[in-house]
Write a structure and sequence with these properties.
Layout lengths: L6 H13 L3 H8 L3 H11 L13 H38 L4 H6 L1
Helix pairs in contact: 1-3, 2-3
Keywords: Coiled coil
InterPro entries: Homeodomain-like_sf (IPR009057), Transposase_8 (IPR002514)
GO molecular function: DNA binding; transposase activity
Length: 106
């Protein structure tokens, strides 16, 4: 992080954010901190006319698709982590010579 962008790129980032792209995605894409993107939006929001805001072109649609894929990926990673934890717990139970659940069955 810490990359400096010229004014033209900053305006492009602000336009994409106003068009609906999430700040986090823009921050990763342009390698800047999300709070930096938010401050650019606050600074330049009023200077951008509605005609300058990009329509839902292919670039914006691709970024929105990327957001959806990232959300599904994060959900899948979470589920995978939970399943790995469950497997580890079951393996630990199998290693015990006198597991508590067998005592309850007698």
């Amino acid at each position: 992080m810490g990359k400096r962008l010229n004014e033209e790129k900053r305006l492009q980032v602000v336009k994409e954010a106003i068009a609906g792209v999430k700040v986090g995605v823009l921050a990763r894409m342009y390698d800047v901190h999300p709070e930096t993107v938010r401050s650019w939006i606050r600074e330049h929001r009023d200077s951008i006319s509605p005609e300058e805001i990009p329509a839902a072109d292919e670039h914006v649609q691709e970024l929105q698709r990327l957001q959806e894929v990232e959300q599904r990926y994060q959900k899948a990673v979470k589920v995978l982590g939970e399943k790995e934890l469950e497997i580890e717990i079951l393996r630990e139970l199998l290693k015990k010579q006198n597991p508590a659940y067998l005592k309850n069955l007698k």
